[in-house]
Amino acid sequence: MTATTEHRPSASQKSISEQGLRAFTNNIFRAIGCPDADAALATDVLVTADLRGIDSHGVARLSGYVRLWENGRLNTAPEPHVVHETPTTATVDGDGGLGLVVAPYAMEIAIQKARQYGSGWVAIRNSNHFGIAGYHALKAVDNDMIGYAVTNASPLVAPTFSTERLLGTNPICYAFPAGKFPPVVVDMATSAAANGKLEVADRAGRPIPEGWALSREGQPTTDATAVKSGGALLPLGSDRAHGSHKGFGLSATVDILSGVLSGANYGPWVPPFVAYLEPVADQPGQGIGHFVGAMRVDGFRPVADFKANMDQWIARFKAARRIDEGQPVVIPGEPEYWATQANRERGIPLVGAVWDDLQQLAAKLGVGALEEELTP
Amino acid sequence: MTATTEHRPSASQKSISEQGLRAFTNNIFRAIGCPDADAALATDVLVTADLRGIDSHGVARLSGYVRLWENGRLNTAPEPHVVHETPTTATVDGDGGLGLVVAPYAMEIAIQKARQYGSGWVAIRNSNHFGIAGYHALKAVDNDMIGYAVTNASPLVAPTFSTERLLGTNPICYAFPAGKFPPVVVDMATSAAANGKLEVADRAGRPIPEGWALSREGQPTTDATAVKSGGALLPLGSDRAHGSHKGFGLSATVDILSGVLSGANYGPWVPPFVAYLEPVADQPGQGIGHFVGAMRVDGFRPVADFKANMDQWIARFKAARRIDEGQPVVIPGEPEYWATQANRERGIPLVGAVWDDLQQLAAKLGVGALEEELTP
Predict the structure, then answer these.
(1) Complex ipTM, two decimals?
(2) In terms of CA atoms, which chain A residue is nearest residue B145?
(3) Closest approach of chain A CAs to the CA of B23, in angstroms?
(4) Has domain A78-192+236-334 been given CATH number 3.40.640.10?
């Protein structure tokens, strides 16, 4: 469902096998000090994003994580630990580690609690960017559970009636097991559009649609540089008449669960992902925050009954009356499932700019270069 | 946050005290066979909506519930019961009762489970319209817990790329306790606009903004009769470029949690609230479905710390740079909190059409008429 899946340029594109990309990424994480198990886990999160076609959140972000480490803002050998707990809730301190490592640690606790008591919920503080929310929620699905994962993020989005960047694109993910169909995975930013979409338009010299961003003065704009120029992204809904207060409410919910409940930072205090922006002073919490959860399907009804009804739900929505005969309803998570199968078979496509960036990273860190696979 | 709070006409408006409206509503529910305790509970849910200024979901709906009962589609003396359970999850069969009674029964179970184990989650089937989601979520807040409530509803909304009504306006509510400020209550339909907004425009002979509805043919429309004419409401986000697939994903999530997980109906099979529309044949489940939950704040961190940070969060967002000097950022739940204080003091306003409808209802059921209070 991520927009970047549609915008993949075919021009300067190269392709690499899943194994090749895993080996390369693993080497990078080990080179910056991650223990073997952590490196393998962080690699799995990023490569899963690329396999699913969500290339904005895959290895394209590797150099960003490395720059955070270079700036001393990332602990690559963290010891995440539980600081507060009940039978079905916990708060984890991520020890300043990669969210790619800390969030799976927390989700494993949620799953263990759900196995024992039916559900498990873990708030995480003192963490960093955790990759795609869907990775974490799908861990629950592997256990016939419903998965939930949200995170706050660098402030880019203004609440309704303001033009101040106070919220991240704060994604929400719910994942549900199905029977013969792929799992339903709703994995979405709570902004009207991703910042990456503005960057793509900016590089192409194209305007953006109204409803994605505001100017610094709070006016509707089609200027792709609006956010860079002091403006802000708009919440889902775009304007008050179309429900932007609902997108604001969802984003606020994510911020409160991830930041306020865990003891992480929230709102404008969330530290930026990009290393060239310094975290603001007087932070009320530690690092960025996430919130993950798992509920056993058979805590509510037999798994087979649930999956049979999920299949009926999916089949009915796929059969919905179409506006354009060529465009069926898209079941959330299904395009990413099929992208994974295709990318496993044919190799993972990487755009030229990302390829070049990764090669420079490899040279800098002294690890082996990427080697292109020729499609069979 | 509900749109209807803005559109209250002052012309043919009457006013009644909270006590007066409670006594009247209680009599109506008892007249259709509700036991005393159930009548009091259903009354509390509806009057709370009116107090909060969400008059679309208050006593204006009373005659709708009565018509469902007249049509034999409502059990006014239900025995809701748990049909499946773990320490922190349960499924409740609502026995065909009012959602106004069944959902509070389920939320009480969720709160008890949370008290014992940290969190509690209850799916509900075989129920009916449950009023405002916020009522149920706020029960958790009264116990220093985070509350969650969702419900599916009569199909009015089309998924992205379709023009078929397959989803309800499927609201989501999260409620969080705060310290010196009112609780943060995000209570929102997952459609771009409520159907009531189209009805208001239709009665006034006004067009609607593009982005609220589609024509039967799937074209954007400004026709306020679009849904009545075979079209559909649009999900939050309005169109694909502005993220309608996200609104669809949220609505799907609500439908799966409420319908598929509980064993209620889902998608196009959800029975309509209006008694003049018959439920469709071959229903896969029972009645409509809800899903509620509660998590203890002190399952994650001390309540005082959480509330202090909530207050800081709220104060920071209230202080956000404004686009229009006269319009501050609205904290979700705050207007409804102040509306409650005002309506308690000055009486609850009812528009003329609702007043007349209630008087006819009273005459039909042989209960005492409403008596207007003159504002002191």
Answers:
(1) 0.96
(2) A261
(3) 34
(4) no
